[in-house]
Amino acid sequence: MPSDIEIAQESDIKPISDVAAELGLLPEEIEFFGPYKAKVKLEVLNRLADVPDGKYIDVTAITPTPLGEGKTTTTVGLSQALGAHLGYKVITAIRQPSQGPTFGIKGGAAGGGYSQVIPMEDFNLHLTGDIHAITAAHNLVAAAIDVRMLHESQATDEQMFERLMPKNKHGKRSFGRGLVGRLKRLGIDKTDPDDLTPEERRKLCRLDIDPATITWRRVLDTSDRFLRGVTVGRGPNETGHERETGFDITVASEIMAVLALTTGLADMRERFGKIVIGLDKAGNAVSCDDLGVAGAMTVLMRDAIKPNLMQTLEGTPVFVHAGPFANIAHGNSSILADKIGLKLADFVVTESGFGADMGMEKFFDIKCRYSGLVPNVVVLVATVRALKMHGGGPKVVAGKPLDTAYIQENLELLRAGMPNLLHHIQSARKFGIPVVVAVNSFATDTEAELELIRKMSIEEGGAVDAVVSRHWEFGGQGAVDLAKAVVKASELPSQFQFLYPLEWPIKQKIETIAREIYGADGVDYSELAEQRIEEYTRLGFDKLPMCMAKTHLSLSHDATLKGVPKGFRIPIRDVRASVGAGFIYPLLGEMSTMPGLPTRPAFYDVDLDLETGRVTGLF
Amino acid sequence: MPSDIEIAQESDIKPISDVAAELGLLPEEIEFFGPYKAKVKLEVLNRLADVPDGKYIDVTAITPTPLGEGKTTTTVGLSQALGAHLGYKVITAIRQPSQGPTFGIKGGAAGGGYSQVIPMEDFNLHLTGDIHAITAAHNLVAAAIDVRMLHESQATDEQMFERLMPKNKHGKRSFGRGLVGRLKRLGIDKTDPDDLTPEERRKLCRLDIDPATITWRRVLDTSDRFLRGVTVGRGPNETGHERETGFDITVASEIMAVLALTTGLADMRERFGKIVIGLDKAGNAVSCDDLGVAGAMTVLMRDAIKPNLMQTLEGTPVFVHAGPFANIAHGNSSILADKIGLKLADFVVTESGFGADMGMEKFFDIKCRYSGLVPNVVVLVATVRALKMHGGGPKVVAGKPLDTAYIQENLELLRAGMPNLLHHIQSARKFGIPVVVAVNSFATDTEAELELIRKMSIEEGGAVDAVVSRHWEFGGQGAVDLAKAVVKASELPSQFQFLYPLEWPIKQKIETIAREIYGADGVDYSELAEQRIEEYTRLGFDKLPMCMAKTHLSLSHDATLKGVPKGFRIPIRDVRASVGAGFIYPLLGEMSTMPGLPTRPAFYDVDLDLETGRVTGLF
After folding, report:
1. Is the dihedral of CA B355, B356, B361, B362 positive or negative?
2. So what's the ipTM on this one?
3. pLDDT at residue number A176
4. Which InterPro entries is this protein grouped with (chains A, B) (predicted)?
């Protein structure tokens, strides 16, 4: 079989204007970015406000091997089957990948084989600049924090007052837009700065940020491990103000999580304003509104908020929008793309990051909670390979050849691994959603193996169906049976419910997820975690949903525990808050938020064919 | 008069497809980025190869006050006059501004009043992502450098060999694309890695970079002074490999200079490969080709190389492409935009950064040398205000009210300042190009003052004409007389010549510019500068043109010396090389390559009107 990039570059591709027209988008509702990408304006939601929503399908997976089990490929293949073979109007809604790892060790994120989003080079690099906009907005906040601390350290209250509210040429002062947020927070309702008392001036002008509490780092969309920890302020004019901090990869930014969870421009503006960057020396939260920077962030993100339209290899429409981390964030594409999609299509097929214990739980309890959308079907992707691993098969390591256990029939190993799949089916059912198991089939799988998965999924797991799918090799045609099963399941009534109510205390929410979804016996908190929970409760952030930052390689917090681990307790090392995005994220281990490059990075193979202008060597 | 953003947002704007069609671009030659921006494909150069070039006009200025003398506004106003009032086909070619300072203290860079490029929000923010692409490409190189040093420090020669050229599944090794450049440099012409001698393996696999010689920093398009100096590698897994470095603003990247000077994809690929990031421990240059990263850089920049099409307030076409620094780089927009423009239009009006001693000299000796294009006219922008300053007027400070000397008639002060203008006219004439002086007129200028400038420019300076222009207030209509003078001057024969030949030694080139253009008595070199000149000569970089990194606020190296300073010698503090871009840049002082934010940053005023979606407070 040809490589992914060969398949993608040889495919027939439609002008994106045709894809948009087929979807029923009006010409004035789209903005082109080259011939094969477009942004869709949010105004379409007003035009279609009265149209009933289509069916909402979430694609998730069992606990994967480090190789991944083909979730995006299945999402795309299923969509191709629904749209190009069964004649439904369908929209695929997936995340935009981070560009940095593309040049390191990671493969593309556009699906694979004959189930891909194209052009894959555009999908994997730059796209329409949304991630670049996040880099700009995020680092503007970081620059504002450090420079504000420097300026406050060098000025009296009166000097700060003079500089922040200078007299205009008529000798008049005004608060200006940048101070509106802070005035409101402080409960000062005066309109003339000259009426402020000295104490009010001090409060308004001096943020008094405690450097030790700053959680806002800087970001770059480059895999640069030397930026994980940096000392900033080493220039001669910043001497005495050096500070230890670091860079995360841009998709780990809270701004990315906001982009994914926002429901519109006004909501995004409000969320940016609420982002907490640290505390002041009295222990109060300091927000982007306090810094006066949330308006500029919104301006930088005003195009990024519009979903990006692309297409599959079979010409069905794809929304690519937002790509938050699946551990420290919720790992799901944007609410706005799904909302628009559900107005335009019979089916929206979206994907949740990592396994069902991570991405799906957050899809329901965070994304659907903020969107108000009701999902209809969960498609749970499983592979013979991963199930054998859960049954006790040898370790699967990326870049190493697979053990023969994985490429020869072994029903015993497979049966021993099935509980992982059954557990995830049960988890989905706890939310009241019917489950269709999609067995992403490889050439080495045997009929008996595939049949075993099917039978046990339905009979023991309670899946409404379980279907073998061969979309990688055959495109949409290979997923027609899966698509038919999904259509059927979508006609069942949805009895969707959240796992926990927001009013519960932080610990009760954490423990419910740990017990119900991970199968843990309980939760242990570090001293730091206890302190944070107390602090967030004091600051009023305890009514947010939980976004567990856990490994995806095990149902437990320990990546080496496969199958369905029993008799373990979840340790909470730290608890952090993304107040603007709207969740608390308890940390169950070390989460790397900045990848590195290997000795032989993927960029070694990448070049431009100067004759054809084509990208070569990208996967 | 309304503010710039009000004028811009209230203007009638044409779909960019109309602007492109009026220019004679074919639909398949443009790529849309929203309704008002498009990229122009380089293929248009093939189609129009046999069309004769239009006239090539460079807009430059006298030595400015810190407020700037309206060079971009004049460039746009002149274009509007030529295109919208005199009926010529005209293209304005200007630089893309850096986004970072937009949120600090800087005003917009889209012109002003009734001579602007629109939409000004798009012009000033993101545009089509070219600067973001540079950030990505630049920082990929930085990540590659640090991680390569780390990996080399932890591996034997054999391990490096194994990792860089692993056996494939057939047990066969290959060099792969990433090692091609280095093989060539080392003069190894073997095709099978297993045939390499141990010494060749070591040479090929070990770059042996000397950390003390690394000149490649990181970049961000954010004004973040705390990044001027940083220690990287402070994470626990990089302990022992910490390194002092820093960030520049993205437009200071050598990649930006390459973008501005390249003549096509193959040339850009080659220049990226030649970029020198530092030396190895034996004193050899280490290039991006040695790192194997130049192909990926080219892929990241494959869209950025296409010029961006926008429009003026009067609907004439504008190319916005590349924005290199005007001190450490050459400060001119791209060669490719000018080349395409000259095929499509009767006139290309382009702008050089800073005053004529800086931007214009580099336009001729660097940009025109690499492009092979022959300029026809220099438009030299002067203001009564700046000339009075040169005549000994009080200090002009941004943000402070102007002294009355500048707003009342004062012919004596003005006459005393005229030598600065006359000097710049003479400089342009040394290159064989006719000069038209454009007096950018303010409401407070008197007729007698304007007439004095006109008369002396022609009679004493030898300008072919000198015209008062009021394009800020009246748009193109206000610049019709200027446009007519430019048309007339463009009909004179061009006797264009460079100031120096490339074969001269580095010092002779520097001294020629210092004496002929700055009026210096001579040049003094620091010990460091002497060392660098010796080193660059040894490495074969001495045949490059010189790009002087000097203040723009004086003809000399000392910003406080106004008028035409005499009896001074130019000190060369350091000499650096942008080998990929293709110039040596001697440093005549400290050049800040990363701006900071003031206590009350411009972002304080910026927000999005949530009703209309319009940007507010941006200038």
Report:
1. positive
2. 0.96
3. 85
4. Formate_THF_ligase, Formate_THF_ligase_CS, P-loop_NTPase
How far apart are the CA of B251 and the nearest CA of chain A, in angstroms?
Answer: 14
Question: In chain A, what residues touch B606 (CB-CB under 8 Å)?
Answer: 177, 295-296, 299
Catalytic residue among B103, B354, B364, B431: B354
**Which residues, 6 or more positions from B243, have their beta carbon under 8 angstroms from its beta carbon?**
A226, B146, B211, B214, B231, B232, B233
Tell me how far the alpha carbon of residue A547 is from its chain's centroid: 11
Interface of A with B in 420-479 (CB under 8 A): none
pLDDT (tens digit per residue) in A24-66: 999 999 999 999 999 999 999 999 999 999 999 999 999 999 9
Residues in chain A, overall count? 619
Q: What confidence category does residue A106 fall into, taking pLDDT thresholds of 50, 70 and 90? A: low
- Catalytic positions of A, please? 71, 73, 95, 106, 326, 354, 442, 472
The 10s digit of each residue's pLDDT in B128-169 is 999 999 999 999 999 999 999 999 999 999 999 999 999 988
Q: How far apart are CA A549 and CA A563, in angstroms?
A: 20
- Report pLDDT digits (tens) over B527-566: 999 999 999 999 999 999 999 999 999 999 999 999 999 9
pLDDT in tens, B404-448: 999 999 999 999 999 999 999 999 999 999 999 999 999 999 999
The CA-atom distances, in angstroms, between A572 and each of A441, A533, B67 are 37, 11, 56
How many other C-beta atoms are found inside a 10 Å radius of the C-beta of residue B566? 11
Nearest to B185 by CA among B197, B195, B196, B200: B200
CA angle (A293, A296, A298) in 5-degree steps: 110
Active-site annotation holder among B228, B369, B442, B444 = B442
What is the set of domains in chain B, with CATH numbers? Answer: 4-128+303-490 (3.40.50.300), 131-300 (3.30.1510.10), 506-587 (3.10.410.10)
| Percent of chain A's residues with pLDDT above 90 | 92
With a cut of 90, say whether residue A170 has pLDDT above it. Answer: no
In degrees, to the nearest 5, what angle opens at C-alpha B68 toward C-alphas B66 and B71? 160
Query: B263 near A275, Cβ under 8 Å?
Result: no
Question: Would you say residue B399 has pLDDT above 90?
Answer: no
For residue B95, what pLDDT is reported?
Answer: 97
Residue B27, class by beta-carbon neighbours within 10 Å (0-12 exposed, 13-18 middle, 19+ buried)?
A: exposed
Residue with tokens 């206890």: A530
Band of residue B522 on the pLDDT scale cut at 50, 70, 90:
very high
CA atoms of B369 and B375, how far apart (whole Å): 11
pLDDT at A399 over 80: no
Instruction: Write out the two tokens for B220.
Output: 């961000």
**Contact B330/A at CB under 8 A:** no
Q: A207-235 burial, b for 16+ CB within 10 Å, e for fewer?
A: bbbbeebbebbbbbbbbbbbbbbbbbbbb
The per-residue pLDDT for B176 is 85
Task: Give me the residue label for tokens 């993205």.
Answer: B250
- Told to judge if B73 belongs to the known catalytic residues of this protein, a careful annotator would answer yes
Cross-chain residue pair A177–B295, CB shorter than 8 Å: no
Neighbours of A419 (CB within 10 A): 18
User: In this predicted structure, what is the pLDDT of residue B445?
Assistant: 96
What's the CA dihedral at A418, A421, A426, A430 to 10 degrees?
170
Burial class (CB in 10 A: 0-12, 13-18, 19+), A524: exposed
For residue A11, give the 3-state DSSP assignment.
coil
- Taking each continuous run of H as one helix and of E as one strand, the counts in chain B are 23, 24
Does the beta carbon of A241 lie under 8 angstroms from any beta carbon of chain B?
yes
DSSP A575-597: EEEETTTTEEEEESS----S---
